Structure formats: structure tokens, C-alpha cells
Amino acid sequence: MTVLLIAVGAAVGAPLRYLTDRAIQARHDSLFPWGTFTVNVLGSLILGTVAGGATTGAVPGSAVALIGTGLCGTLTTYSTFGYETLRLVEDGAHSYAALNAVISVVGGLGAAFVGWALAAAIWP
User: Fold this and answer.
1) Residue 43: which residues within 8 A CB-CB, separation 6 or more?
2) Interacting residues of 38 by C-beta distance below 8 A, sequence separation 6+
């Protein structure tokens, strides 16, 4: 049953990632990968909330599998983050590459922390 929940979450997360990335990137005339940054921070926020809720027992394991592993696992993308950062370096956009690396890590960790804190506030 867990594998099925993960597959269902992934089936929603993958197209959501693609559509969100394309919609955001289409609105920015910049080399910076705003779409990937957005899905990674959003996924970190969702995962932080789900994981925080799971530690209190408010979010069941089935929801962690569906949302945390399935949805967030395909919504977020470390490989694309790495590829886009290297592509920026190859294109000579070193400042964008450094900015992408720093704000993606800080933004992702910050969003996960905010999600965890939000879960603690919702489910004390």
C-alpha cells in the first residue's frame, strides 16, 4: 500500500513540478532558474510541515508516504538544481551560479524550518 501511495503522490508531483517551473520561468527574462528555485523551496516547506506533523503524531505515515515521499520527492529536484548551476558556470554567469547555490540551500533549509515551525503551531 505504501508504494501505491508514493506512486500516486509522484504522479501529481512530477507534472506539478514541470508546470510550475515553466509558468514561473516564462515570467522572468533572466538566466537565473527561478522555476527550479521555487519548486525546491515550496517542496521544502511542504516536507517540513509534513515531517513536523509526523513527529507529533498528527500526520500519519500514509500521508508522509503520499505527500512527503511521493509528492515532494518529484516536486523538488536536486539534479536540475545541480545541472542549472553548472550550466550557469559554463555560460560565464558565475555570480548567478553562486547566488543559485547559496539561496537554494538557504531557502530550502529555511522553508523546511518554517514548515516544521508551522506544524508545531498547528499540531502542538
Assistant:
1) 71, 72, 75, 76
2) 20, 21, 24
